Prior knowledge:
- Helix 6 packs antiparallel against helix 7 (279-304) and helix 10 (336-344) crosses helix 11.
- The relative contact order is 0.15.
- Helix content is 37%, strand content 24%.
- The longest helix is centred in the C-terminal third of the chain and has 26 residues, at 279-304.
- Among the domains are: 54-77 and 145-220, D-Amino Acid Oxidase, subunit A, domain 2 (D-Amino Acid Oxidase, Chain A, domain 2, 2-Layer Sandwich); 290-364.
- The protein has a 7-stranded mixed β-sheet with strand order 5-4-13-14-15-12-16. It has a 3-stranded antiparallel β-sheet with strand order 2-6-3. A 3-stranded antiparallel β-sheet has the order 8-9-10, with no helix packed on it.
- By secondary structure, the chain is of the alpha+beta class.
- It has helices spanning 2-8, 34-39, 80-94, 134-139, 197-208, 252-272, 279-304, 308-319, 323-330, 336-344, 346-352, 359-364, and strands spanning 14-17, 31-33, 49-53, 55-59, 65-69, 75-78, 97-100, 106-109, 114-118, 121-125, 128-130, 145-153, 161-165, 176-180, 185-192, 211-220, 230-231, 234-236.
Amino acid sequence: MAAHELASGGIETTVFEEHREIGIPEKCDGLVSSKGISQLGLVPSSSVVQNRIEKAVFFSPSMNEVKIDATRQNVIVLDRSRFDRSLAERAAKAGSRIEVGKRIAEYDRTQSLVKAKYDSVLVESDFLLDCSGYESYIRAGGKTVQGAQYLVYGRWFDKSTVEVYVNPEAYPGFFAWVIPISSDVAKIGVGGEGINTFQMLDKFVSEKQAIVFRKIAAPIACFGTLKSFVEGRIAKAGDAAGQAKPTTGGGIFTGGYGGRLAGSALVKCFESANPDLLRGYEEGWRSTFGREFRFQTYARGAFSRMDPGQVDRLFEMISSSDLPKKISEEGDFDRHSVALIKAFGLSKIVTAFGMLFTSEMRDLLGM
C-alpha cells in the first residue's frame, strides 16, 4: 500500500521482501469487510475473494451459543497469498521496484540518510518504512500471543458461517476460530498465551474428524500500538507498529490504512523537502483509529480477566436478550466499540465486562 502511494507520487521506491515468493507463507486468514477494503481504494478480483460470510456463531466454554447475522456487514474471506501478490503488482505498475528474497537485517539513521543492510549489502535512502510485521513489533517491546492456523477439509461447518470458540481456560487471552472458504475446506486457527497451539489444533481436528492440508504458526500482535510510529526518517506501519485490532488481531484494513497514510505523508516530505511532515502520518492514523483501539484494548483487558464461568454467564445474558439482533442490524466489523455501544448500551457494557466507569472510559466513548 505504501509503495503504491510513493511510486504513484513519482518517488523512487524499493520494497525489500524477505521471502522468495510474495504472499508465501500465508499467515493471515483474510477475513475483512468489503467496506474496509473499499476505504483502502481496492476492488479485489473474483480470484482473490474466496468466500462471503453471512453469519457468525460464538461458543462459550459450556458451548452456549450466540448467533450473529453478518449479512449487512458484507464480510469476505480473501486468499491472502493472491491478495498480497495483487498489491505487489499494483505497486510495481505504479513504478515501484520489488526485491524478493532480501531480508533487511538491520537499519539505522543519520541526520540526512537511512542506512539498511541485507546480507552484506548496504543500502542508503532518504527514508525507510518498516512494514516487517510482528518481529519488528516484538523487538520494539510489543507483546503478542502465540497463534497457529491450519487449512483443513471437514464436514461439520457451514460455508457461510464463521465459528468462534471463547474459552479462557483453553485459549487464555484469545480464542479459536473456523473460517470456511468452501463447503468443505476451512481455515481454522487458535491463539492464546502460554499454550501449545499445534497441540490445541490437533485436538480440535481430531474431534471434528478433519483432514489437515497445511500447518503454520505465527505470533499475533493484538496488544495495541507502539507509543510512536515515527522516529526521524524512519516510520513503522502495519503489524510492525501494532496496527492490528486488539480484539481479534485483524489488521488488513487498519494496517493497510497505515501503509497508505505513511506513503502519502512521505510524498509530502519530498514535495516540501521537509522530513518533519512524516509525523502527519501518525497523527492521521491516530485520529482515525486511536479512540477505537483504546476502547478495544480496554475491553480486551476486562474480558481477559474473566474465568470460564463468567464467560458462560455473559453468553447466557446475551443469548437471552435482543443484543444479537441489535448487533446484526447495527454492528460494524471494523469498529467494535460502535457495535458494543449500540447493542449493549453503556451501562450494560460496564456491567458485563466489569469495566470501571472512569474519566478514561468517558473519553473513549466520546462522552
